[in-house]
Amino acid sequence: MKRHLFLPLALMVVFALSRLPGCLPDNFSAAYAVMFCAGVYFPGRLAWWLPLVTMLVTDLGLNLYYQMNLGIPAFDLGLLKYLGINYGAYAVLIWLGRRFRARDNFMSLLGGGILGAILFYVITNTAAWLFNPFHNPEYTRTLAGWLIALTRGTAGYPPTWEFFRNTLMSGGLFTGLFAGAMKLGAALEKPAEAEPEPEEAEAPQEVEA
What is the residue range of 150's domain? Predict the structure, then answer.
């Protein structure tokens, strides 16, 4: 298999496995970094459809698991609307990754991954406040309600600032790992430049008397 197809497919397999229940801590996901790095490294349309299809297939599997084993109404219309908002945010992360280049330095790519995680958090929590699919009473259509959505969240659940912390940590960690692995692989594949051979010294010319 060609390298430009093997690497994206291998990354998607690892990403899909990381979504198995209990594989990673709560609200700690590789999704933000995967979407951003797909935009940076995947060629053409592959950068769009492969990560989004992988996310869709794993979301369907997780929803079936939660509904059948935990009794959670995972296909409730309100939840599906919220998932749709997430997919819009994922598309923004891929778009952001397309603004970068694979040859950009490591710190620039790491910063891009962290910026993507921040954008995902702000977009999804703002949409949850604006559309309020679960009818949370705290999410009033005021500035105070928006700030509650970004910091404290709704009663009975962990505060959203913890989600923000984990989003930043996971986005930075997985972006750093993937970008670092890609740069290391590129460095190892780069052929060693042949050292120039020393020039032979020219023999001194005899001066005629």
Answer: 3-183
Q: Does residue 207 belong to any structural domain of this protein?
A: no
Give tens-digit pLDDT for 153-181. Answer: 888 778 888 888 888 888 888 898 888 88
Q: Let me know if residue 204 belongs to a domain.
A: no
Q: Is 23 helix (H, G, I), strand (E, B) or coil?
A: coil
Pair 33, 94: CB distance under 8 Å: no
Nearest to 41 by CA among 151, 170, 181: 181
What pTM was estimated for this model as a whole? 0.80
Residues 91/51/159/129 CA torsion (nearest 10 deg): 30
Tokens standing for 184? 């290391």
Q: How many domains does the chain have?
A: 1
Output 62-65 pairs: Cβ under 8 A, ≥24 positions apart: 62/19, 62/21, 65/21
Q: How far apart are CA 132 and CA 28, in angstroms?
A: 23
pLDDT tens per residue, range 104-162: 998 999 999 999 999 999 998 898 888 887 788 888 989 999 999 898 888 877 888 88
SS3 76: coil
- Tell me if 24 is assigned to some domain: yes
